[in-house]
Amino acid sequence: MWNIVRYRIVYFLLSAVVILSGLLTLSMGSGLSLSIEFTGGAAIRAQFDKDISQGQVEVVVNQLGYENYVVQGFGDGEFFIRLPLSDDAVGQENQVRSGLEQLATVNMNFDQVSPSIASETIRNALIAVMVAVLGILAYIIYAFRGVQHSFRYGICAVIALAHDILVAFAVSGVVTTFASNIFRLEISSMFLVGVLTLLGYSINDTIVVFDRIRENLLRETHRSLEDTVNFSILESMGRSINTSFTTLLVLLALLFVGPPSIFDFLFVMIVGVISGTYSSIFVASQLLVYWEQRRSKALG
Question: In terms of CB atoms within 10 Å, which end of the chain has fewer, N or C?
């Protein structure tokens, strides 16, 4: 029988390398910026009817008197422009439209968010994540109350969730740093929806493995926790991988044919599905064994 649990330190180190290298790249690169929903400002999507260079658009924005701005091109005459907030939203929209129409005919989408709404959005986002995590922790502790040290299952599951969120940010940092000319990733409302959906998907996968561990612990009491966890992972691994694979096919299809407005959500979910499957097998379950072994050594 394949002894997966034996190499748990390797899995922990692999996760640490991925997370730390990704977050380091994120901190040293251009950074994963906040969308206007979280910072306030004006966001503009401009689609020209002919090829326009990014430099031409930047010249127009400079001529309009803006200094702190972002211009990002996506090819085929499409650009994303972020500008500081103006007291006159209608005037700002008309000003930008007039400036861009000097280059070519443009189809422009203009959105403006005030700082007060942005700060409220940040607060609500943090509350939503914390409520979700605390709810998951309480549910697992209650659901596994028939097993000794049920709180360990909840804490290990929450650590696995934190692992998946950090991996999502780490990978986003790498993509933002090295492929910003292809993908425009930012922490937006859709990014947050992806994180919350990721929490639900990841915990579902973890609970499936934990539930099999619980069943085997109650049924086969002669086995050690390490052997039981290893046996349970092997029993449930096929189901976890198959489910994640079919989910990935759907997400990849949406990534290629879906609208750009849900790209942030799909990216987080694709990374999260892979990371969630990995963490349920190689992080959460292994932490249970590691915790028990540390406890046994402490007792003597």
Answer: C
**The domain containing residue 76 runs over which residues?**
41-113
Q: Do 107 and 130 fall within a single domain?
A: no
For the record, the structure tokens of 30 come out as 């251009």
Surface-to-core class of residue 273, CB atoms within 10 Å of its CB (0-12 exposed, 13-18 middle, 19+ buried): buried
CATH code, 90: 3.30.70.3400
Extract the tokens encoding 246.
């079919």
Tell me the pTM: 0.77
Q: In this predicted structure, what is the pLDDT of residue 180?
A: 63
Please report the DSSP string for 55-103 in residue order: HHHHHHHHHTT--S-EEEEEETTEEEEEE---S-HHHHHHHHHHHHTTT
Host H or E run for residue 251: helix 225-257
Report mean pLDDT in 10-residue bins for the chain, 300 residues: 84 93 78 69 84 86 81 78 79 88 87 70 80 87 84 91 91 78 72 85 88 86 83 88 91 84 86 92 91 72
Q: Pairing relation of β-strands 70-75 and 78-83?
A: antiparallel
Residues 51, 74 contacting (CB under 8 angstroms): no
* Planar angle of CA 290, 286, 20, nearest 5 degrees: 95
Give the Cα separation of 195 and 36 in Å (integer).
Answer: 18
